[in-house]
Amino acid sequence: METLLGLCIGIGLSAACGFRVFVPLLVMSLAAIMGWFEPMKGFEWLAMPSVCIALGFATLCEIGAYYIPWVDNMLDTIATPAAMVAGTLTTMAVSSGEMSQFASWAAAIIVGGGTATAVQMSTVAARGVSTATTGGIANPVLSTGEWIGAFVLSILAFLVPVLVVVLGIVAMIWFVRWIKAKKNAVRSDMV
């Protein structure tokens, strides 16, 4: 059960990494410093105040950079692989000691990295549509929603991890159906 709970927390944090890379790491660091979360062996560095300060600074820089026109689109090229790495690390940091080292890393890469990448790719697509349709004017609205979503999702991943996973699955199903409906509408318009 502890393994499943750790994976649920990891999935929630990884999804948050898809919105903003540093926000979930900052939340994890704050939680570790306050004693609300004990990182797995090898990730004790998350509980260091200097790491928390560095993550806070990195978070502010990342959030601020997404408000600069065209820089936000360029950041997505860096943020996509970074989100995968951060998603893997966050999942590994909360994984259970019940699994072997190999199984823990495999689950972290597949589940954590995959979740973060999927969310990040959806934000890239949304930003691309926003840039194409509004010339980037609506991108700050998207950026605001993304960093707020990252904070809320990171906190909820610790408080109600199973609910976060269930809601994430429902959201992905809805998103896939929405994309299919849009494609069908475009095809209908072409005929």
TrEMBL record:
<feature type="transmembrane region" description="Helical">
    <location>
        <begin position="45"/>
        <end position="68"/>
    </location>
</feature>
<feature type="domain" description="DUF4126">
    <location>
        <begin position="7"/>
        <end position="178"/>
    </location>
</feature>
<protein>
    <submittedName>
        <fullName>DUF4126 domain-containing protein</fullName>
    </submittedName>
</protein>
<dbReference type="Pfam" id="PF13548">
    <property type="entry name" value="DUF4126"/>
</dbReference>
<keyword id="KW-0472">Membrane</keyword>
<keyword id="KW-1133">Transmembrane helix</keyword>
<keyword id="KW-0812">Transmembrane</keyword>
<dbReference type="InterPro" id="IPR025196">
    <property type="entry name" value="DUF4126"/>
</dbReference>
<feature type="transmembrane region" description="Helical">
    <location>
        <begin position="12"/>
        <end position="33"/>
    </location>
</feature>
<feature type="transmembrane region" description="Helical">
    <location>
        <begin position="102"/>
        <end position="127"/>
    </location>
</feature>
<feature type="transmembrane region" description="Helical">
    <location>
        <begin position="147"/>
        <end position="176"/>
    </location>
</feature>
